Structures are given as C-alpha cells and as structure tokens.
Amino acid sequence: MNAEIIAIGSELLTPFRQDTNSLYLTAKLNELGVDVIFKTIVGDNRDHLTGAATLAISRADIVIFMGGLGPTEDDLTREAVAAALGLELYRDPEIVANLEKRFAARGSKMSPNNAQQADVIAGATILPNANGTAPGQWISEEYGGRDKTILLLPGPPHELKALFEEQCMDRLRAKLPPQYIATRELKVALMGESQCDQRIAPIYRRYPDVETTILAGTGEIQIHLKTRAPFLDEAQERLEELIQEIEEELDDFVFSDNGESMEQIVGYYLQMRNATLAVAESCTAGLLAQRITSVSGSSRYFLGGAVVYSNQLKTDFADVPPELIAEHGAVSQEVAAAMAEGIRKRCGATFGVGITGVAGPTGGTPEKPVGLVFHALAGERGTEVIQRNFPGDRKRIRWFASQMALDMIRRKLM
Amino acid sequence: MNAEIIAIGSELLTPFRQDTNSLYLTAKLNELGVDVIFKTIVGDNRDHLTGAATLAISRADIVIFMGGLGPTEDDLTREAVAAALGLELYRDPEIVANLEKRFAARGSKMSPNNAQQADVIAGATILPNANGTAPGQWISEEYGGRDKTILLLPGPPHELKALFEEQCMDRLRAKLPPQYIATRELKVALMGESQCDQRIAPIYRRYPDVETTILAGTGEIQIHLKTRAPFLDEAQERLEELIQEIEEELDDFVFSDNGESMEQIVGYYLQMRNATLAVAESCTAGLLAQRITSVSGSSRYFLGGAVVYSNQLKTDFADVPPELIAEHGAVSQEVAAAMAEGIRKRCGATFGVGITGVAGPTGGTPEKPVGLVFHALAGERGTEVIQRNFPGDRKRIRWFASQMALDMIRRKLM
C-alpha cells in the first residue's frame, strides 16, 4: 500500500512557509507499513486542486489532503475532492447545528460562510474535530477498479495530529495486512559523515531487511533504523542485533541508542554520579548553558556559570589571572584551563567547563584563525583541554564548540 | 508566467528530510515575477519521476527539477525528463573529459558509473557546475503549442544556489516581460497576531496591488510586503507609502522595517549610544547572552554576564542579597531588579539585565505559575521591571523572556 500527501494553501507556495505536517504523517504512515510515494503542494486554486486530486487518487492507494477545510472562499478542498471523485456534496444539518452551538458558546452569532464547513462528500464518514471548527472526512471509494482511501484533514498541526491519531490510525490499520514495524535511532558525536558511513556500511549492508538512513547535523550524526516483521519482538530483536554490531564498530562515539539528545545524556550521567556542573563561556557566550538548561530538571545538576566575553570578566568571574591572558592571549589552552578551574571553584561544582575561541567572521589571525576553539574540563583530579579548528560560519563554530564541551563531559562520566 | 518545482529523492519522502531548496527558488522566481503554482516531491523511481515530469511540463511554463543528477543508478532525472519530452540523451565527450580530469586531479581514477553525469538531453544548454560533478541543463522546448523552459539542477543547496544565481537568473529574466518587484519586511515585537492583523488589515486592504503576508513567530510577527511595477522606484515608493501607514498605526511595536533581527537592532542602538551591556540570567540561562552574541561584532557592546541558576550564584555573581531571596523568593520583582543592578555594577556596564522566572514544566506554584517571568533593566537613572505570564512550553517561555528583555533595551534606547 502506498500514499500521496497533498498540502493545500497558497502560503505554502511562498518563500516563507513550509509544509511540516507531512513529516508527521509520513512517520505515522511508515509505522503502519505504508510508503509515501508523492508529496504535492498546491495553492488555493480550484482547477489546480481538482487536477492534483484526480491525479493523486488515480496513482496512490491512500490520499491525504491537508488544509483548505475552513470557512473562507479560499477553502476549496471539499469541492475539489468531490469533483475529482464525481460525487455530490451535501450540507450536514448536525454539523451546522454544532457549529452554531460553538459560536453561541462564545457569545457570537455564526456568519453564513461558516456553514460550508458542514459540506460533506456523499458517502464520507465524518471525523469530528475536537480542536477546531472544520471536521475531517474519510472516504472509501472504488476508483479505476481499485479500493482507494481518501482523507480530508484540517491544516493546523494540532488539529491534524489529534484527529489523525485518534480517528484515522486504527481505521487505517484495520485496512492493512497485519505487520509490525520497529524503529530505533542511534546518535553519534563529532565524527565525519563519510567516515561514519565507511565504517558501518559493511555492517548494515548485511541487513537488507533493515532500512538504514544516515543524517548528518552539526557535530552529530543520526542513524535511523527501521524494519518490519510479522511479530513485534522479531522486528525489535533484528534491530537490536544490528545496533550491537554498529556500537561495537563505533564504540564510544555512539552517545545514544534511543534518540536522546546530547544534553539529556549529559544530564543523566551528572545526576547518576550526583555531580554538579558550572561553565565559563567566551565564544559560545551562553549557548552551552542554554543547551544544558533546555532539559527540564537541569537545576538538579547545573549550578550556572559566567559568560565572560571581555578579558576583565574572565578575571572577575572565573579568576583567570590577567598575566595569563597577557602572556598567552584570551584564546589559548592556558586560559581555557584557567576558566574551567576558576568557574569550578567559584561555583563549588564537581566539574567546571571553560570555552574560548574565535567564532568569527572577524577576529581571526594567521596564528589563531576563525574556528580555533579551546575546550577545558576541570574536575577533582585535574583539567583536560581539547583544541579544535572547526569549519563553517559563526553559528556552526559555536554549535560545534558547545557539542565538543558536552561530549567531553559525557566521555569523562561514561 | 508560472513555475512548478520538482524535488527528487527518496530521502525527501521520509519523516526526516525536507526539501528546503524550493524556498530559495521560490524567492528567486518571485523576484522575477514568476509565481510557483505547484511543488512536487517524488522519489528515485523511474515511472513516478517520468509521470511527474510529463504532468509538470504540461501544466507549468517553467519547470525546475532539483536533484537526481548524480552518478548512481538512483539518479534518474536526465532519463525521466528526456522520456517526458520525447527527446534523446547523448553522452557529451567534453563533460566526460572534465569529469576524468577532476578525478585525476584528486589522484583517483573515475569509476564508469560517473560517466552518466555527462548524459545531455538533445538540444539542452549545459550549465557547468563549479561546485560539484554533475552539470545542470537548460532546455527550451515547445510543448503542447506553448514555450516551455525546463531546468535540471543539482540537489546540494550550495551547488544549486550558485548555479541558479550565476547561470539561470539572467537567462530567465531575458525571457520574461520587463517588470520590477519590490519586497520589504516589517517586524513587530510582542504583539498578538490577531491584534496586529486587526489593526493593519484596514490599511493593507487599501493596497490591493501589494501582496501582504503575515507570519507569527514566538514574540515576533513578520509582515512581508511585495509589489510589482514597470519601474523599480515606483514599486519601492508604493511599499514605502504602505509601510509609513502601518508604522503610524503600530508605532513603536515595529522594531525593524528592513528584515533586521531583534538582536541586530539592539546591537545597533547600543553601538550608536556607545553603551555596553551585561546580563544576569536565571530561567533563560544563557539564551539571552547567546542571542546577543549571535551578531558578529557584538563584543563591542556586550561585556558578558552570569548564568545564575542557583540562589548562591545570584548572590556570588550578581550581588543579590540573600535576605532579598529569602523574603521575596528567587522569582520576584525584587530579585530581578537586584540581579540587573548587581550585574551592571559588577561588569561596569551601561546597562544591566536581570531575568528570573519559572520556565517549567515543573516548579510552578499557584502563586508563581509556570510562565511567570520578571525582566529587569538597570541603567544609570534607575531600574525598571516588567512582569509577564507567558504561555507555552519551556522552550517558548524562555524565548519569550529573552525577546522581552531585548525589547526593553530597544525601547529604552530608541
């Protein structure tokens, strides 16, 4: 079984807005074992929409329309799908009554244009929308000698998700051959994509029944694994087998095998060890602290820290001796170490981190080019410093530096 | 003239990857006065791709294919477009020679599969790709009695952008009726979307020749304006007229009328006044510092600050009297003000900011619920504090708080 997703709305054909619902729907359909074969984005135009609907219904088993169900004259999905299927629309009095009640509850009178949201395609099952005014519709039709399933869903993500989850997943599952799908996500820190792929390709190629997708982010690679089997535990065991082989190969570069973020993993380790953390950031300037505290409950292990952009503050907040800065420069192994040690002591933390570097685009020199960053981690038993030359722009360099610092903590506590 | 954009690649039909090239291309096509009427996403499947190509060429004036030009057997775009147009492919010896040279320069021998990148559709203009191996192709064909322009572009964004910018824009412009398009972007801080629209809709409705798109982000609304005219200054003047009316209505809620970010605007003002800034963050925990320093050159006005997650650090780094915290609680107007004043003094800055609040999801009480944030700005002439109850999750609350603090600085310096 395959599916086509059609996103409707002229705003999705501007440079500013992008359909993201389809990523959610694709994940859900994949869960059911359904592949998405086309995604189409079409504006609020009757002819374009009817054409796209006709084509999609002819080529896919399941067609999901998102958006265009509202009360304005731009909302044409119902009409277009009815026309594509050669079916009539009728106005459902119960939906009209519900809409009127909804408006009355808010103390206002329904304007007449709202009634078009009660137009239903002949034979459709109505899918009530708890989060909005326009209900969805489910149509099972024979078309060109094949069974087709056609869904009309509202465009706002929270309406669409609730409606699909609660009213469509089980109905779709009942139409599909019984099978189970298992997925896992491994995350790898600070390794090149091609290097990673070179090392694991010989492994995952021996698992042709597992779909392996490798995605590279900044300082992080995600390895998505998916397989299907007649029984769930069979599918899960198959993934576990492959994961063990990959983890053996990549060793401690793998920081998560269940989709957790680097910030979460570092938090787990710190809590497990009853340890606390403080940070002194120069070039990352708050990014590291902000990432650590993006995890709810991080106040249990994160004390705080200092953003020491100026040399004066490196001394005032992290006790870096001014002579050290004068001698080695603010961007140096020595200053990074002093920042980590100073902030650790000042905050009374188990571990202290210091980051200093050149984020660019200006401020680089032949000796200390843009991208040069020193990361220091100070603990009870001493301080280690890692130096890196990161590629990319200011944003990328800062992200790399925060990732490296988090990874140093992770490796220390592992 | 209208266009259809076709993004090719099975990875774009997974839940993990999204076509983003089309946003860039849409902006560029809009600049030329070309509307995008469809976007289609199709996998690496010969039949699907040929079908999508045939349809697109029949319904749009300009069809742009992105991706599927590489050396693997999954790269089918050349074949599919040739089939859709009923044209032959030939292998261009010059491109083959260039490819071989490229490999030789890296000291390796070209594997035979690479040669398919030299396959050219009969009559196409070859668009050399300075950043990759696969060249693009430009085809002008009559199809169904109409002139069609068909572009084959590589998928990697930096290859696509360079190639489109340098080799396609002028060629397209030459095909289009001469007209000029002016665009502007207004940004509005901390106002509700519906409130904003209610206030400006009566204005922009009087400019039917200007396309107005309103987008709401967290704590920020973008108003995109676009118009076209036979002369550029005419189009620009028309926008300027509308902008003046909108700015009159929204007054100092508008913080930018040329697309600048809030961080940039605050930076401009601080530099203009020769002022410096230091921040003490509790619930935002580095987010504010990180946003301010995302602007290159921010070291000229940003000194640094402290992430004072724990009460102890509020005292140690921002000189907040422990009694004050004991009496009013860490999340209070008094502590916010003391943080701002303390950090200002400690850092010797013109202005100091203090932020303390409950980012959630835990830690809220009936008295101090999740979302409650106090923002303080201390200057030479005193300290002001703004209290807000922000809606949403941890991420949204933290972003709102950082936005409010930046907006306080902006309003102070305006």
Q: Tell me the distance between the termini of chain A.
A: 44 Å
The overall pLDDT of chain A, averaged over residues, is: 94
- Specify the oligomeric state: homodimer
Most extensive chain-chain interface: A-B, 72 and 72 residues
What is the correct CATH architecture of the largest domain in chain A? 3-Layer(aba) Sandwich
Uncertain stretches of chain A: none
Strand content of chain A: 25-35%
Share of residues in helices of chain A: 25-40%
CATH superfamily of the largest domain in chain A: MoaB/Mog-like domain
Rg of chain A is: 28 Å
| Number of continuous helical runs of chain A | 13
Beta-strand segment tally of chain A: 17
Name the shape of chain A in a single word: elongated
Could you outline the blueprint of secondary structure elements for this entry?
The structure is a homodimer of 414-residue chains.
Chain A: E1 2-8, H1 21-31, E2 35-42, H2 46-59, E3 62-66, H3 77-85, E4 89-91, H4 93-105, E5 119-121, E6 125-127, E7 136-143, E8 146-153, H5 157-175, E9 180-189, H6 193-204, E10 211-217, E11 220-229, H7 232-250, E12 254-256, H8 262-272, E13 277-281, H9 287-292, E14 302-308, H10 311-318, H11 322-328, H12 333-347, E15 351-357, E16 372-379, E17 382-389, H13 394-413
Helix pairs in contact in A: 1-5, 2-3, 6-7, 8-13
What would your notes on this structure say?
The structure is a homodimer of 414-residue chains. Chain A is an alpha/beta fold and 414 residues long. Chain A is built from 13 helices and 17 strands. In chain A, the strands form four sheets. A six-stranded mixed β-sheet of chain A has the order 2-1-3-8-7-6, sandwiched between helices. In chain A, strands 14-13-15-16-17 form a five-stranded mixed β-sheet, with helices on both faces. In chain A, helix 9 links the parallel strand 13 (277-281) and strand 14 (302-308). In chain A, helix 1 (21-31) packs parallel to helix 5, helix 2 (46-59) packs across helix 3 (77-85) and helix 6 (193-204) packs across helix 7. The longest helix of chain A has 20 residues, at 394-413. At the A-B interface, helix 1, strand 2, helix 2, helix 9 and strand 14 of A face helix 1, strand 2, helix 2, helix 9 and strand 14 of B.
